[in-house]
Amino acid sequence: MKNLTKKSLDELAKTMSLIPEDERDGYWGMYSNDCFWRCVSYLATGDRSETAAARFAESYWSGELGYYGAMNHLSVNQGDMSLDSAISFKNSYAGSINMSSICIQLVGNSVGHALVYQGAGKKNILGQTHDVYYYYDPQNGTNVESLIKHKTITELEASSNSSASSNSSNP
């Protein structure tokens, strides 16, 4: 086995694909952080496992980049998804699931965690009635109650398209 040296690591770094620092907040992932793919797998098959999520990721990226490109992408980026890639997947997916059920928690203006929307209701908290939103988190296998309504991929796509068109109309 060849020994790695500082020099060989520097050479390797020159040829590796890297996500620019200013784009890193726009990605969420797979394998260690595969919330998006687990949502897709759970909605499509009921299976929320890492293996099932990986099959969907591999299939999507193989269609986008070819098999070897997909394997390279997954090994370098661990299947991370940008919001644009998630929207592209939603628009190209021909399966029988409602992709609009996948909600994204936003952290400021950055993509956070993907969840499956299950419904809404009312809840009395400290004597006041509040809207409550119910989600399922396939990555952790837990039900989540939130006072915050997280946007669906469809809603995020619409707001992304409207801000892009307003930016293009302002010289």
What would your notes on this structure say?
There is one protein chain. By secondary structure, the protein is an alpha+beta fold. It has five helices and seven strands; from the N terminus they run H-E-H-H-E-H-E-E-E-E-E-H. The protein has a five-stranded antiparallel sheet with strand order 6-5-4-3-7. A hairpin with a 2-residue loop joins strand 3 (102-107) and strand 4 (110-125). Helix 2 (35-45) packs antiparallel against helix 3 and helix 4 crosses helix 5 (153-169). The longest helix is centred in the middle third of the chain and has 28 residues, at 50-77. The chain starts with 5 loop residues before the first helix and ends with a helix.
Fold blueprint:
Blueprint: H1 6-15, E1 27-28, H2 35-45, H3 50-77, E2 81-82, H4 83-92, E3 102-107, E4 110-125, E5 128-137, E6 142-146, E7 151-152, H5 153-169
Helix pairs in contact: 2-3, 4-5
What keyword list fits this structure?
25% strand; alpha+beta; two-stranded antiparallel sheet; 7 strands; 171 residues; 5 helices; 44% helix; 5-stranded antiparallel β-sheet
